[in-house]
């Protein structure tokens, strides 16, 4: 049996296909709670190194990038950072949410979703998200990722983000695989409170690129449900990890195989909580990151 599994893996790799999630490392609460959440929160800090030092061993920030007027909202500032986690043998690409985007969501304003653009892996994505990612990427993140990969061959690439940052992380993971910067088998993507980023074709293309891709959703968090599923074809990619009620240590969660699955948060009638969006694993994501993840 082991020989058959090994042969199957070799065939998949040879043809550039992504192995099913069941054959690779699967989601664990500990990884999302203790490692990836800190990396997402650090993006909200003016110095992500504080979180990196607090939560990781031998972790070094490469650079934090800020881009003003990053998308349709001229007052918005988009930001992300890269780092190397040498003890974990991982390169980090992390993005934060923005106040301007959150304000629009709070006001049920769909303007950031009304214009779409074609995506390299297939399908269409929000032009607002696509432009924001492209500007941060071009502002130095592209060079930093290339430098980190050259200096640390064989490291995994962990991509993470919260809110708008979740959509930028989704695009970043898809982009580095689609442009053959990194093989999909080396990429781990975890997002928190990610809105719908693109249409169904994008979601399916994304599913085919990544085996380790998890959208963590907290109870009635409003943002994963915007825009509405019937608005301009927007559709989530898999896999959703749904925590109903609380996210305390030991909290139960459901992993749904479907892109849009009624067994997870898509089955709720009411999804209007801003507080659930701001808090994951009992942490105020932005405030915790700003305090150095202490």
TrEMBL record:
Keywords: Signal. InterPro entries: AB_hydrolase_fold, Fungal_lipase-type. Residues 1-16 form the signal peptide. GO terms for biological process: lipid metabolic process. Residues 92-230 form the Fungal lipase-type domain. PANTHER family: FUNGAL LIPASE-LIKE DOMAIN-CONTAINING PROTEIN (PTHR45908:SF8), PROTEIN CBG11750-RELATED (PTHR45908). This is Fungal lipase-type domain-containing protein. It comes from Caenorhabditis remanei (Caenorhabditis vulgaris).
